[in-house]
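Good day; I would like, with your permission, to put a structural problem before you. A protein sequence and the structure tokens that stand for its backbone fold form the material at issue. The record follows directly beneath this note:
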Amino acid sequence: MNRKAVFLDKDGVLNEPVLREGKVSSPRNLSEFKLIPNAQKALHSVKNLGYLIIVATNQPDVSRGLLRREDLDTMLAAVMESSPIDDMIVCVHDDADACDCRKPKPGMLLTAAKKWDIDLAGSYFIGDGLKDAQAAEDAGCRFILIDKPYNHEVRCRYHAKDLSAACEQIADFQTRTA
């Protein structure tokens, strides 16, 4: 039996991004890490619908030497402890590494699908960027874009103002198809 999942990007979806020199960036330590308000409540709502919740995140600052792996692991552990997340798949590579896991490639989603027996066509990816949208499309998931000031160029069918609204859309989709 195939299961359904809600895949999530981390930065900008689960936690607030950090602005550095006018650019959106990932937090680099626990003091910079701030969960999006109501994230846990939103995740519990889709968990209660029977979805697996899996984070799929690029974290190239590790390979760039800007983020220590230990600090990343501390932030990820904090999220896992406070949320109903089933799994986290992390790519620490940079674009130059040409790995199969780094979004926009769908490698992290395909790995999770195999590990958890996930029906990708019945699953969703909630993200905030073009790389997320491309990974979702290539994996065969529906994509919901969290609208941010930095992603107006991303074109997709489904939009939400925040994680809570995206989770409400998933509940609506499920109700309409039941």
The mean pLDDT is 93. The beta strands are 5-8, 18-20, 23-25, 52-58, 87-91, 124-127, 142-146, 158-160. The two ends are 17 Å apart (CA to CA).
